[in-house]
Structure formats: structure tokens, C-alpha cells
């Protein structure tokens, strides 16, 4: 017989173990495999003698692999369950990053980084789909935010580790960095295989959090709701706007600091670590805030903060403007995924959370595949990333307005 939440109140609920392991998974599958690329880009560009647009295309290759993972993940989750898919995704990431460390030229790096993106999707999507299974509505935002904090820790790590390796190994520093990141991902794959669990029932538990009104006599939520497709599209479009913009700043801001602001790689790495520091709190802070004020209001606030950061970066207002842009970007960068992971459970119910999250992530993956490629082309055309940052600001400002018209989950009878 399942143990109720109150029966386990005196001990640590296993849901928090899921959160801790989940943060480590994101530390590796996205934090190291994706966001470390920003720090590695200047040295890779010099070592491989690649243009801005080709470096942007390598980033897009990663996101294209992630897009394929979005399509395949729902079937894989049903067939093999989340824990197995997450562990396999991390193993693929480890092998591909090790391959990148030994690669020469654009094509092999692009191919391996595309496969890295595939592994990233296989690890991230099932992981975030576990949140509505392990946590009830009033704790979902906080739990998702804590998990996503793993990304920020990875950014801090990359900001200090990669310049150190570049100083120690000179032209081969970026190769040693990819090899070390591969080893970290391999260790995480083992931890995930040992400690993750697919459902609370596997531990004889119920989801963590207070029981909501639908379990106190209200009508059960039907399997399908009229308008669910339209709602998923609306959430998906908001996620697309986030995907198309956040990695423009996230991919190229270090290059901008080095090439356009004249900062050293070490100083740029320190600033990038600040992004990581503030981003540790972005998911949990805005996620917990959305638990209180609502998902719609949380989305609006985050998009407005991001718009300000991109506008400051695009206007190039000097070092002060750059620092404000970095702080604002870091403070909100991982808030949207945290809120979205909670929102799909609120709007559509925990039973449909995995498929719904995969659906809106498809929009996100399309956006992040397009964003860096377009930004690279704009930089090649104008000789600066400022136009790309200004376009990102316009998109996120439009997204804030679009989010204003989302319905409340309570209007749909789901808590």
C-alpha cells in the first residue's frame, strides 16, 4: 500500500533525491555539453580556423540533434522508461564530447555536436517530465527550478575551468576541456542509472506536496479537453520565443566580450561565471514565485527581464550596460524552462505531462536551432552581434505580451 505524504514527513522524501540527481544530470547534459561551448568558442574558432557563421552552424547542429530527440523521446520514454533513456543520453554525450576533443575541421565537429544535442534531449526531456510525477502543483515550480540550477553550476565551472586549461595547454586547451567534460558526463550517467526512479510508486510513495482540490470530491480531469491543442501551441510558441533568443546571448556573448569589448578571455570567463552564479537562482526563484503568483504572471515577468538584458547588450552602452545585461540574463535565463515544466502539469494534469512537455519542447528546439544560425549570419553581415541581440529583445517583448492572454489553470479545472 502506498505511503502517504504525511507518513513520510519526518524523513527526506525521495523526491528531493530526484531533484539532486536531476540537477547533476542537467549540469552535464546541458550545462557542460551546451553552455560550455560559449567559453570554448573563441579557442575553437582560432584552432579550427572557422568563421562566425560556421561556429553558429555548429551550435545549430547541436540544437538540430536536440530537435530529433524531442521527436523520438515520447516513444523512448514509453518503451524504456525515463531512467534508462536519461542514462543512455548521458552516455552518448560522453562519447561524442570525447570525439570532439580529437576532431579536426568543421564537419566532424558539427556531426559529433549534433549527436551531443541528441543525447542532451534524451537526458533533459525525460528528466523534466519526472517533475509533475514526483511533485504536486504547489511544489512543482520550486522543484523544477532547483533541478535547472544545475545549469548555472556548470556555467560557473566552465567560466573558471576552461581559461585555466587554455593557459595550461595553450592551443590544445579546448581539446583537453572537451575530454574532461566527457569524463564528467560519463560519471553522471552512472549516478543517474543508480539513483533515479521513474515514479514515486517505485519507492512506495506519493507525489510530494499538498493534495489539491481535484482529489477532494471534484470531478476527475478528463483525458482530453477541448482546446488542449490550442493551449499547447500557445505554450509552445512562448517556448519557441525563449529558445530562439536565450542561446543567441548564451552562445555569442563571450565572443562579443573578447572581440567587441576588448576583454581578455580570463575576464570574459569571469563575467560568464557571473551568469552561472545568478542563473543558479533563476529557475528556483522564478519557479517558486510562479507557484505563488501563477504561471502566466511568472512568464510575463521573466520575458520582460530578458528583454531588458538583450536590449542592453544590443545597444552597447559600455561596460556598465554589459554588466547589467549579464546580471539580468543570468537572473532569468533558466526561469522559463522551470515554469514550463510546472505549467504542463498544471494545465494538462500529471498523467499527460510527459507527452505535453515533449510537444512544447519541439517548439523550443526549433527556436534554438534557428536562433544561433541567424545570429551568426547577422554578425557576419554587420560585423557585430548587436543586431542579433536587438532582434532577441523584440521577440521576448512580444512574448511577454502574448503570455498576457494565457488562461489560468484554475479556469480549466486543473490544479
TrEMBL record:
Record-level Gene Ontology MF annotations: transmembrane transporter activity
InterPro entries: MFS_4, MFS_dom, MFS_trans_sf
Top-level taxonomic group: Bacteria
GO cellular component: plasma membrane
Keywords carried by this UniProt record: Membrane, Transmembrane, Transmembrane helix
TM annotation in the entry: 12-37, 57-77, 84-104, 110-131, 143-165, 177-196, 236-259, 271-289, 321-345, 357-379, 385-406
Domain Major facilitator superfamily (MFS) profile stretches: 15-411
Full protein name: Sugar phosphate permease
Natural source organism: Trichlorobacter thiogenes
Amino acid at each position: 500500500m502506498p505511503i502517504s505524504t504525511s507518513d513520510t514527513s519526518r524523513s527526506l522524501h525521495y523526491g528531493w533525491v530526484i531533484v539532486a540527481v536531476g540537477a547533476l544530470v542537467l549540469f552535464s547534459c546541458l550545462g557542460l555539453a551546451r553552455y560550455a561551448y560559449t567559453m570554448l568558442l573563441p579557442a575553437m574558432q582560432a584552432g579550427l580556423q572557422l568563421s562566425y557563421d560556421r561556429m553558429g552552424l555548429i551550435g545549430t547542429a547541436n540544437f538540430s540533434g536536440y530537435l530529433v530527440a524531442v521527436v523520438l523521446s515520447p516513444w523512448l520514454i514509453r518503451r524504456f522508461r525515463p531512467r534508462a533513456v536519461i542514462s543512455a543520453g548521458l552516455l552518448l554525450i560522453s562519447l561524442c564530447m570525447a570525439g570532439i576533443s580529437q576532431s579536426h575541421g568543421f564537419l566532424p565537429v558539427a556531426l559529433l555536436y549534433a549527436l551531443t544535442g541528441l543525447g542532451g534531449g534524451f537526458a533533459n526531456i525525460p528528466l523534466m517530465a519526472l517533475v509533475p510525477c514526483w511533485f504536486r502543483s504547489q511544489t512543482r515550480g520550486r522543484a523544477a527550478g532547483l533541478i535547472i540550477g544545475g545549469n548555472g553550476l556548470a556555467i560557473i565551472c566552465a567560466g573558471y575551468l576552461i581559461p585555466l586549461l587554455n593557459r595550461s595547454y595553450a592551443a590544445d586547451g579546448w581539446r583537453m576541456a572537451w575530454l574532461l567534460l566527457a569524463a564528467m558526463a560519463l560519471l553522471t550517467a552512472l549516478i543517474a542509472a543508480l539513483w533515479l526512479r521513474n515514479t514515486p510508486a517505485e519507492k512506495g510513495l506519493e507525489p510530494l506536496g499538498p493534495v489539491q482540490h481535484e482529489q477532494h470530491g471534484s470531478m476527475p480531469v478528463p483525458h482530453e479537453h477541448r482546446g488542449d491543442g490550442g493551449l499547447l501551441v500557445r505554450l509552445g510558441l512562448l517556448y519557441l520565443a525563449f529558445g530562439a533568443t536565450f542561446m543567441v546571448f548564451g552562445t555569442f556573448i563571450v565572443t562579443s566580450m573578447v572581440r567587441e569589448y576588448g576583454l581578455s578571455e580570463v575576464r570574459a570567463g569571469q563575467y560568464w561565471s557571473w551568469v552561472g552564479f545568478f542563473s543558479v537562482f533563476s529557475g528556483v526563484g522564478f519557479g517558486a514565485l510562479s507557484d505563488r503568483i501563477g504561471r502566466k504572471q511568472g512568464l510575463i515577468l521573466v520575458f520582460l527581464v530578458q528583454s531588458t538584458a538583450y536590449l542592453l547588450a544590443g545597444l552597447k552602452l559600455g561596460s556598465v550596460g554589459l554588466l547589467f545585461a549579464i546580471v539580468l540574463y543570468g537572473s532569468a535565463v533558466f526561469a522559463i524552462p522551470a515554469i514550463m515544466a510546472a505549467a504542463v502539469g498544471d494545465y494538462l494534469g500529471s498523467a499527460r505531462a510527459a507527452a505535453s512537455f515533449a510537444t512544447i519542447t519541439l517548439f523550443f528546439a526549433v527556436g534554438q536551432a534557428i536562433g544561433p544560425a541567424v545570429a551568426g549570419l547577422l554578425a557576419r553581415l554587420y560585423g557585430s552581434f548587436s543586431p542579433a541581440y536587438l532582434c532577441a529583445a523584440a521577440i521576448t517583448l512580444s512574448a511577454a505580451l502574448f503570455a498576457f492572454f494565457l488562461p489560468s489553470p484554475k479556469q480549466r479545472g486543473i490544479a
